[in-house]
Specification:
Layout: H1 3-16, E1 18-19, H2 21-29, H3 31-39, H4 48-64, H5 69-79, H6 87-96, E2 109-118, E3 126-137, E4 140-147, H7 160-172, E5 177-183, E6 191-196, H8 198-223, H9 229-232, H10 247-253, H11 255-260
């Protein structure tokens, strides 16, 4: 990237950036990692868990859209460019979703439902996302988020589902939405649901808006007011340090952060 291209890239981030839950969550966890990924455009290496999860999601989507199991699995693998995932594990996780072939062809079910809304009216930062499956049944509105995680957690442990519920409440003009986490690695207690009301939705929207405004403000402080990078986008020690693709860079600029997390880079 040339100096001029980088300047245009930064200006675009400050004016037109659209946020997602994962982008906000990354900044909350470590502003420095966010800066390296989204400002300096350093690519994060695709990992086995990431590619497996992506393939499984695509295969489930294809089955819901009417493909046979064989066709869906092939499309899911193709989605990750035939990455060397464990194919037995891949098929096992796919089967555990236990979805009905062609279910998304019915008028009350949608897959990969996209949304994009301003977080606080016109001119405010925008949030977008893709929801795995959305259903309308007997006047109720619900959605499911498939998870290939090895650990389960509750729907209220983070803001992702509440933000999705907020978006759906706008789309369908309803005060309540039920969100479900479906953990594909587990047989028992694999579905955890939560009814989201305006209270939880507003809490999530405010969380997202505060972080988005903080990011935009810090970009302006660093690039327009020339405040130091370490003040605007400091590194934060967290459990993800051991798997961070930028650990070597961090070890040079923030060696004490990695040591505090027990991470040592040779």
């Amino acid at each position: 990237m040339t100096d001029e291209e980088f300047k245009q890239h930064v200006e675009n981030l400050m004016k037109n950036q659209v946020f997602s839950y994962s982008r906000l969550k990354l900044f909350e966890g470590c502003p420095f990692r966010w800066y390296l990924k989204y400002v300096e455009n350093h690519e994060e290496i695709d990992s086995m868990p990431l590619m497996l999860g992506k393939a499984v999601h695509k295969a489930i989507e294809e089955k819901l859209l009417g493909k046979s199991d064989k066709e869906a699995l092939l499309q899911g693998w193709k989605e990750v460019d035939y990455y060397a995932i464990d194919l037995v594990e891949y098929e096992t996780l796919f089967q555990r979703a236990n979805v009905v072939r062609g279910d998304a062809l019915r008028p009350n079910t949608e897959v990969e439902k996209h949304f994009i809304f301003p977080l606080d009216g016109d001119g405010s930062p925008k949030l977008q996302g893709f929801i795995d499956m959305v259903q309308q049944i007997f006047g109720t509105h619900s959605f499911t988020d498939w998870k290939s995680n090895r650990l389960k957690y509750e729907p209220m442990d983070n803001m992702q589902l509440a933000l999705y519920a907020w978006a759906l409440s706008i789309i369908y003009n309803v005060p309540k939405v039920t969100g479900t986490l479906f953990f594909l690695r587990f047989f028992k207690d694999n579905a955890k649901s939560q009814l989201f009301t305006k209270v939880e939705m507003e809490e999530a929207r405010s969380w997202a808006l505060d972080l988005a405004n903080e990011i935009q403000g810090n970009l302006e402080k660093h690039f327009l007011q020339h405040m130091p990078l370490e003040e605007c986008f400091p590194a934060k020690g967290n459990p993800g340090c051991s798997n961070c693709p930028f650990a070597i860079r961090c070890s040079v600029q923030y060696p004490n952060i990695l040591k505090s997390e027990g991470v040592f880079v040779l």
